């Protein structure tokens, strides 16, 4: 299965540009892109969209843990959530996301919130 990322609308779009520039075969969409949830979509709806379309959410939002708990309590799932670390450069974050995307992926991050970097 190919891992796909959805960037929260609050994340600078430079992440997507650099991600796609460095590895154009990987998939990264941003909230507001064609086919993605529209800008202004609430977090619970973003989680449902990610579940339905099998995208991992990349965000810097602190509200996500509460929304994920509610989502899972409704017997729903999400492929995973990555929380950005403001101490990492954009380049370091992109390296991390590319490394994760190129590793074997079998629901490894399902219903989890992972703070970057992994190690």
Q: Could you explain the architecture of this structure?
A:
α3 links the parallel β3 (56-59) and β4 (81-83). α1 crosses α4 and α2 (43-53) crosses α3. It is globular, with a radius of gyration of 13 Å. It has helices at 14-22, 43-53, 64-73, 90-102; strands spanning 4-7, 27-30, 56-59, 81-83, 113-115. A 5-stranded parallel beta sheet has the order 2-1-3-4-5, sandwiched between helices. By secondary structure, the chain is α/β, with parallel strands linked by helices. The mean pLDDT is 93. The longest helix has 13 residues, at 90-102. It has a single domain (4-115), classed as 3-Layer(aba) Sandwich (Rossmann fold).
Task: Offer a concise description of the structure.
It is built from four helices and five strands, in the order E-H-E-H-E-H-E-H-E.
- Helix share of residues? 25-40%
SSE succession:
EHEHEHEHE
Low-pLDDT regions: none
- SS-based class: alpha/beta
Q: How far is the N terminus from the C terminus? A: 23 Å
CATH fold field value: Rossmann fold
Highest-level CATH class = Alpha Beta
The number of distinct β-strands equals 5
Q: What fraction strand?
A: 15-25%
Number of helices: 4
- Radius of gyration (CA) equals 13 Å
Q: Average pLDDT value?
A: 93
Inertia-based shape? globular
- The CATH architecture is 3-Layer(aba) Sandwich
Major sheet: order of its strands? 2-1-3-4-5
Q: Sheet bearing the most strands, described?
A: 5 strands, parallel
Number of domains: 1
